[in-house]
Amino acid sequence: MKRVKMIVAYDGTNYCGWQIQKNGITIEEVLNKTLTDLLKEPITVTGASRTDSGVHSEGNVAVFDTENRMPADKICFALNQRLPEDIRILHSEEVAPDYHPRKQNCVKTYEYKILNRKIEIPTLRLYSHFCYFPLDVEKMREGGAYLVGEHDFKSFCTARGQAEETVRTIYSLDIEKTGDLITIRVKGSGFLYNMVRIIAGTLMKVGMGVYPPSHVEEILDARDRNAAGPKAAARGLTLIRLDYEKELEKEIHGENKNWSYTLCQDKIVSEGSAWLTIHRCTQEDFERLLIRVVHQAVRNGAEKVFVRDEEGAGRIIVGQPYGFYVFKNDDENGLWLVTQK
Asked: Residues 11, 52, 152, 309: which is the catalytic one?
């Protein structure tokens, strides 16, 4: 048995997104069927990003397990001969048996394209959102700058039936205009459901003059989907690439006006320990931050996480469950020691 990783590109126009569903054909469904036919065994792929209906990709990642003896790097060529023209495997390779595309630290890059002119161009209609109202790109850049960094993006997430941690980190958000085509390019640690499309819709409102650029910060602070702009059309969105972390960051620092913390991970590999220092945090966000960052350290390999709250003792309650974790007093280090329940 071997695990194969694939880089998948597709035109999402004719598909109901990535994930298998009852109301229409999906990318995952086509890959499963075609791989099963090719390798003569039941195949189920696992994708990194579950793109929505009509969204495109130049670099989604998927894995599957197979007992077939075909070399992993040759599978892409054989598979492409059987796939429809709007789906292509750009690369295939064997990876470790426990490799999972959604359980690795990575940077995701998306692009949203806006055709900004008086009359639509038919050849671009499937790959850009058409906006006839003139957009002020400089104001869009000013508004987008408020989104860079670690924030609670609840205002930029379509509500789902299940609770979800809504804090994400945007590393960069660039907006360029070439002729009549405006491209919003955003890189982040991960994205919430419809997050990039809502960001695009909100920044278009800024570009139209409906919102001043500073209103984007107010939208973030509201933590309310109703405060943000509309969700832009799916056809303008493309998943460009996923860049996976090759080695663990020694230190992670998260900061905004609501919190500031440092997670030291340099001892995870050698000692299995990580150190979280919370420099400041509002009471409203404290428990969520504690759970979120400790879980990140554990996911990165930490068996023990020591936590220090610089704003004073008393906010961490010994023995009380925090998500999957319980804290104990560690007299030797004068810190809190976290263990799984």
From this structure: 52
Q: Average pLDDT of 237-263?
A: 96
Q: How many residues does the chain have?
A: 341
Phi and psi, residue 156, nearest 5°: -110, 30
Confidence category of residue 161, pLDDT binned at 50, 70, 90: very low
Dihedral sign (CA 59, 61, 62, 63): positive
Closest CA to 151 of 288, 324, 310, 296: 288
Q: For the chain, how long is the longest CA-to-CA vector?
A: 71
Helix (H) or strand (E) holding 16: none
The neighbouring-strand residues paired with 6 are 62, 92
Which residues are registered as beta bridge partners of 239? 57, 110
Q: What pLDDT shows up at residue 313?
A: 73
Structure tokens at 131: 């906006």
Spatial distance between the Cα atoms of 26 and 201, rounded to a whole number of angstroms: 25
Six-digit token pair at 208?
């139209």
CA distance 327 to 206: 45
73 is catalytic: no
Q: Has residue 233 got a pLDDT over 90?
A: yes
Kindly report the pTM of this predicted structure.
0.94
Sheet of strand 325-330, all strands in order from the earlier edge strand to the far edge: 251-255, 259-264, 273-281, 304-309, 335-340, 325-330, 321-322
pLDDT at 312: 80
